[in-house]
Design a protein that fits this description.
By secondary structure, this protein is an alpha/beta fold. It is 42% helix and 18% strand. The protein has a 6-stranded mixed beta sheet with strand order 3-4-2-1-5-6, with helices on one face. The protein has a 6-stranded parallel beta sheet with strand order 9-8-14-15-7-16. The protein has a 6-stranded mixed beta sheet with strand order 19-24-23-20-22-21. Strand 1 and strand 2 form a beta hairpin. It starts with a helix and ends in a 12-residue tail after the last strand. The protein binds adenosine-5'-triphosphate. Adenosine-5'-triphosphate binds next to helix 4 and helix 6.
């Protein structure tokens, strides 16, 4: 293309962008008008309320952020041009000006190639600087022209990171797109090396499924589970930027109803997170069900009804065999007893008693007393309290029983101080006692760290839905972290889920990936190595005398570049380093958050680094990070793979063995 032709083309695209923005504004204004007049057009208060909620959501979905371009690509198919963007935009006649990236036709933007052009003559990608359309690149697929790697993709992955995570709709890669667009009823497990886009894939899959199955998923809900709140803050704005404002994002602990006020020993936590505890709780609960030993007699005015012991036994046996949740079982027994009473009443009185009579019979003292004897009511807390007061069960060894027994037994379940692992047990008990509402789809990030019992927390919430499991076995740091996926998938209730590897890294530069990969053989898991798409980046490993002094110097150097800076050290070293950086004036005093954030510089404990990324990472004393916990080498693997552009490793002690000899 000649320069004037190029300028002309750019001007035309900018005009289309302006027109699309105006059209979006018009759509939003129309939605706002409808919102304002909703109660006048709606026939009744209920319709007004529903319409109001719908319109409020629609307005939020149509928000226009000037920094995120409305479209990022174009497909030329036959005589038509389709601009692909973050949401549908239509003109006043209803003609599309921008196609949502999730629409079926948009798929060609991600998948078409010279091998399989899918009718696409030209694929155009747009380059933007601060929301301004500044360039484009064309691939004439029908003429056999395709770039090995898009310059716009390279610029996007090398861009300095500031603030929270951003969406990747403009540059989703074909192997990622396959996962994003997997069917709603398919559960998948993505084993991806660091920075291969697992989190991005999970979030985009949620947005895609919501687009395709809007009504069904809005009713059932979509849940994203992340490892900690710092991570949830980091990813929080991705889905709203894609127009999806109604997705629940939570940690595992956030899903649980129990307030945590105690800490377990490592040994106790290990037993409580073991899947045998599910069986222990179930046995204890079902052990409460007893055989009726005597007949039931109920007075009803001048009548007395009687149900024989055999009939009562049959009812209890039948319900037990049907295996409903425990509290539903109790109600079923009650209902069947009332039915028998009703038959007698009908036979004697010749007419059928009404609902009030049935309710009265169901609450009659002899019926309640019988139920309390043969199928006693119990709360989840009470059940766990009983097991931890006396964990006798041949599924657990004597030592295991001892280690989970209350050290100081509380008087009642109500006064118990529960630990995080107890909260999981209470949730398990709640799932045995009653039904748990299931989400339509659940995305679980950093899934390698789920214990079997935590996996069951998710399983209960996705029983009637599907899951996207994202993780990397090499990054498992919890004591119970998974060594392979099939076992965890079984605990999640999705044993047949497909396990798909992702190996192309978009975050970490090749030199840093090579360093981290040296740890892989020592981690005891079988995972494919990452290969980085990035040849840029810098790695410096320095032996130093004063860690604090060198950290300050390193941060000062890093501040000369654009982007975020993460200083990562053992949890115990964080306060000292943050103090030194404040004294040196490179971090302003008074930052209140637990990650000691101030502007571009964050000092964070190794235990919170998972899932996050910084342009410049300074890792302080790897030997201490390794020594701090049982899976210290895995933790170091996580920490080393947080860098987008530059990694400094500062050490006073020798480097851990797998890194021997690097400099
Ligand atoms: N197709 C893509 N285009 C542009 N950027 C991408 C693409 N895929 C991933 N990225 C970027 O690469 C970085 C890493 O992605 P992400 O955090 O999703 O990886 P991850 O596999 O979850 O990593 P980790 O296992 O380390 O948590 C992010 O900045 C993300 O935006």
């Amino acid at each position: 293309m000649t320069v004037p032709a190029l300028e002309e083309e750019l001007a035309a695209e900018r005009a289309h962008l302006d027109a699309s923005r105006k059209a979006l504004r018009r759509m939003r204004e129309r939605a706002e008008d409808l919102y304002a007049t909703g109660d006048k057009v709606a026939g009744d208060a209920y319709t007004a309320e529903t319409l109001g909620r719908h319109m409020a959501r629609r307005i939020a979905e149509l928000a226009d952020n000037p920094d995120t371009p409305l479209f990022f690509g174009r497909l030329d198919i036959d005589e038509d041009q389709f601009h692909i963007g973050r949401r549908h935009v239509t003109d006043t006649t209803g003609e599309p000006m921008v196609l949502d990236w999730r629409a079926p036709l948009s798929r060609k933007f991600y998948q078409a190639s010279t091998k399989d052009p899918q009718d696409v003559q030209t694929r155009r990608r747009f380059g933007f600087v601060k929301g301004e359309l500044t360039s484009f690149e064309d691939e004439h697929l029908s003429r056999g022209e395709q770039q090995a790697i898009s310059q716009i993709l390279l610029e996007e992955i090398e861009r300095p990171r500031v603030g929270p995570m951003r969406d990747i709709v403009a540059t989703i890669q074909p192997e990622q797109d396959e996962l994003v667009r997997a069917e709603l009823d398919e559960s998948i497990c993505v084993q991806g090396a660091p920075g291969t886009g697992k989190t991005a894939v999970g979030l985009h899959r949620a947005a895609y499924l919501l687009y395709l199955h809007r009504e069904r998923l809005r009713r059932a809900g979509v849940l994203i589970v992340g490892p900690n709140t710092a991570f949830l803050h980091y990813i929080a704005s991705v889905l709203p930027a894609l127009g999806e404002v109604e997705v629940r994002q939570s940690t595992i602990d956030g899903l649980l109803a129990t307030q945590v006020r105690a800490v377990d020993s490592e040994a106790a936590a290990a037993v409580k997170h073991d899947p045998r505890m599910a069986a222990v709780l179930a046995r204890r609960l079902h052990g409460k069900i007893r055989k009726p030993e005597e007949p039931l007699t109920v007075s009803d005015g001048s009548y007395r009804w009687r149900v024989s012991t055999e009939a009562l036994r049959r009812i209890v046996d039948d319900v037990r065999r049907e295996a409903p949740p425990y509290s539903i079982g109790r109600e079923r027994v009650r209902a069947r007893i009332v039915s028998l009473l009703m038959l007698q009443s009908e036979a004697r009185r010749g007419d059928s008693p009404g609902e009030a009579w049935q309710r009265r019979m169901g609450k009659a003292a002899p019926v309640v007393e019988l139920l309390d004897r043969v199928w006693p009511a119990v709360t989840p807390e009470q059940l766990v309290f009983e097991v931890l007061s006396d964990p006798a069960d041949d599924l657990l060894s004597a030592d295991e029983q001892e280690v989970i027994t209350w050290a100081k037994p509380p008087k009642t379940a109500k006064s118990a101080r529960w630990s995080a692992a107890d909260a999981v047990l209470v949730d398990e008990a709640a799932g045995l006692i009653d039904r748990v509402p299931s989400f339509g789809h659940v995305v679980v990030d950093e899934a390698q760290d789920l214990s079997p019992m935590q996996a069951r927390v998710i399983a209960r919430r996705s029983e009637h839905g599907s899951i996207t499991l994202l993780g990397d076995l090499a990054q498992g740091t919890a004591p119970w972290a998974a060594r392979d996926w099939p076992a965890l998938l079984a605990h999640l209730g999705k044993p047949g889920a497909r396990v798909v590897p992702l190996t192309t890294g978009f975050r970490v530069p090749a030199a840093v990936v090579a360093l981290a990969n040296r740890l892989l053989p020592a981690l005891g898991v079988d995972v494919p190595e990452a290969r980085s798409l990035r040849t840029d980046g810098a790695l410096h490993i320095s032996t130093v005398e004063s860690l604090e002094h060198e950290t300050v110097r390193s941060v000062k150097d890093a501040l000369q570049y654009a982007g975020s800076i993460g200083v990562i050290a053992t949890d115990a070293a964080v306060d000292g380093l943050a103090g030194a950086l404040r004294d040196a004036g490179v971090m302003v005093a008074g930052a209140e958050t637990d990650t000691e954030t101030d502007g571009r510089v964050t000092v964070l404990p190794a235990s919170l680094a998972k899932g996050l990324e910084y342009d410049h990472v300074i890792v302080v004393e790897p030997a201490d990070i390794v020594a701090a916990e049982a899976r210290g080498l895995n933790r170091l693997f996580v920490v080393l793979t947080r860098a987008v552009s530059r990694l400094d490793v500062l050490h006073a002690q020798p480097l851990p063995t797998p890194l021997d000899g690097v400099s």
